[in-house]
Amino acid sequence: MDWKTLYRELKALNWIILGILSVASCVFRSGSVTLGVLLGGLIIIANFGLLQHTVTRAFSLDGNMKKGKASIITKYYLRLLGLGTILYVLITKGLVNPVGLAVGLSTIVFSITIAGIHRAVQTTNEGAI
């Protein structure tokens, strides 16, 4: 399995899951929860995209590092600091519901879990044939 195909599938699945979670929270919960889900999902999808960009630029196709470890670690901590700052402001200003935000931030986890289960079932079915 090549990474580009899997990443493309994960990106599509991220948006589908975020849409489902947002619509469900809009129907069953308040605007604050829905905004939390939506902003949490958007934030984590952007963070995942930045992580993918950093990793693919840091390594060549054969797995050798093109950039130094310090550059990768610095970018990681800067992204983490930015993410923490955004979450801090959203929660302390009372703009979003923290539970809704946590659900939105789980979008990537849901996507990876679903993709993993799908791959496992697909592999099992191929072995049975």
Could you please describe the fold and organization of this structure?
The protein is mostly helical. The chain has one domain (3-124). Helices cover 84% and strands 0% of the residues. It has helices at residues 3-28, 31-58, 69-92, 98-105, 107-128. α1 runs antiparallel to α2 and α1 (3-28) crosses α5. The longest helix has 28 residues, at 31-58. The chain is flat, with a radius of gyration of 17 Å. The model has no long low-confidence stretch (mean pLDDT 87).
Number of helices: 5
Measured between the Cα atoms of the first and last residue, the distance is 20 Å
Poorly predicted residue ranges: none
Question: Into which percent range does the helicity of residues fall?
Answer: over 70%
Overall number of strands: 0
Share of residues in strands: under 5%
Q: Into how many domains do the coordinates divide?
A: 1
Element pattern in H and E: HHHHH
Principal-axes shape call: flat
Can you summarize the main beta sheet? none
How confident overall, as mean pLDDT?
87
Q: Rg, please?
A: 17 Å
Give the class from helix and strand content and strand pairing: mainly alpha
Set down the secondary structure blueprint.
Layout (H helix, E strand, L loop, with lengths): L2 H26 L2 H28 L10 H24 L5 H8 L1 H22 L1
Helix pairs in contact: 1-2, 1-5, 2-3, 2-4
